[in-house]
Amino acid sequence: MKPAIVRTVLSLALTRGWPVHQLDVMNAFLHNVLTETVYCSQPAWFVDSSRPDMVCRLNKSLYGLKQAPRAWNHLFAAFLLTLGFVEAKSDTSLFIYHHGAETAYLLLYVDDIVLNLQ
Q1: Which SS3 state, helix, strand or coil, does residue 94 take?
Q2: CA 95/CA 106 separation, integer angstroms
Q3: β-strand 86-87 against 55-60: which pairing, if any?
């Protein structure tokens, strides 16, 4: 997210008196299906004593996994596009929705969201 975009969107909201909502998505990284093959060692509490050197293949992302933020971003961005939001060309974390006289600006940074409604 570009700082200039954040300042611009917040300045628009302030000067026009638009409400600003801040959201934090709980457990955002735990709902994403991984598109890459990722293996991890067995958790200490789940080691199979007959095969202690085996690894686990992950189907869904976990917190701390480097692929988790990207998987979440792709999932959420795809959802916003189905709702009619358009991704800004200047910053891929800014989504704009127009419906008649109504406009919404949504800034997405990992699992934090800032939403301005007109």
Answers
A1: strand
A2: 5
A3: unpaired
What's the pLDDT tens digit per position in 35-72?
A: 889 898 888 888 888 888 889 888 888 888 888 888 88
DSSP 3-state of 52: coil
Task: Compute CA 6 distance to the chain's CA centroid, rounded to the nearest angstrom.
Answer: 16
Strands 33-41, 55-60: parallel, antiparallel or unpaired by DSSP? antiparallel
Per DSSP (E only), the strands in 9-111 are 20-24, 33-41, 55-60, 86-87, 94-99, 102-109
- All domains in the chain, ordered by first residue: 3-30+65-117 (3.30.450)
Nearest to 87 by CA among 5, 20, 10: 5
- pLDDT tier for residue 2 given thresholds of 50, 70 and 90: confident
pLDDT: which is higher, 76 or 62:
76
Residue burial 48-62, b: 16+ Cβ < 10 Å; e: rest: eeeeeeeeeebeebe
Q: Is the confidence at residue 78, as pLDDT, over 80? A: yes
